[in-house]
Amino acid sequence: EVQLVESGGGLVKPGGSLRLSCAASAFTFSTSYMNWVRQAPGKGLEWVSSISSSSSYIYYADSVKGRFTISRDNAKNSLYLQMNSLRAEDTAMYYCARSYSADIWGHGTMVTVSS
Amino acid sequence: QSALTQPPSASGSPGQSVTISCTGTSNDVGNYNYVSWFQQHPGKAPKLMIYEVTERPSGVPDRFSGSKSGNTASLTVSGLQADDEADYYCSSYAGSNVVFGGGTKLTVL
Q1: How many C-beta atoms lie closer than 10 Å to residue A28's C-beta?
Q2: Sign, CA torsion A55/A101/B100/A3
Q3: Which of A31, A45, A67, B66 sits CB 3.0–4.6 Å from B100 for a disulfide?
Q4: Where are the beta strands (DSSP E) in chain B?
Q5: Which pLDDT does position B1 carry in this prediction?
């Protein structure tokens, strides 16, 4: 079954860091464009970042630019999001999604930024 | 990176049709045929329902259809069923980024 599984979420203090992971299975991850999308509690979806299959093209939302870094390891079928200088407004469920059309989503990992 | 505009709510009775709009600008919806629609039930991950304005992934019923005119995209759900009650989000490619709509809560009366 085609699947994405996120991990690495948790409670972190403002200014802290967290690294999210997304493990892919049952499809050719190395040729897939990948995305991170987040959803604050009770709010809508917000695109965070995208990365091309070979990491040649990387894009960020203005709200996270300079603080978050997207990366991938095609040998490990894994996508990552390094989040630094975290703020309360970064509190959200973080989803990874496959392809330009976001056809497959994981179940998400919750990040809470609070003192 | 302004969000696309969706009505906060929509409703219809079982069997009826409902259309949800998604208004952007010439920098996103109006300039690219990369509009997607997602369905999200409470506590669940979003599910792709429409991509590239009109295309349906396999497994999505043909009761769901998409269209676009100018800067506004639309999702039509015909033959409403109880399980269609959910939040619906549109998204559009916008050059080097992606923008989402604020979401529409669809209620099946």
Answers
A1: 10
A2: negative
A3: A45
A4: 9-12, 18-23, 35-40, 47-50, 64-69, 72-77, 86-93, 98-100, 104-108
A5: 60
Which of A49, A6, A57, A2 has its CA nearest to residue A28? A2
CA atoms within 13 A on the CB side of B85: 11
Q: Of B39, B32, B25, nearest to B53 (Cα)?
A: B32
- The pLDDT tens digits for A33-92 are 999 999 999 999 999 999 999 999 999 999 999 999 999 999 999 999 999 999 999 999
What Rg, from alpha-carbon coordinates, does chain B have? 13
- How far apart are the C-alpha atoms of B19 and B15, rounded to whole Å? 13
Which of A47, A50, A101 lies closest to B99 in CB terms?
A: A47
- B101 interaction partners in chain A (CB closer than 8 Å): 44
Given an 8 Å threshold on Cβ–Cβ distance, is B100 in contact with A100?
no
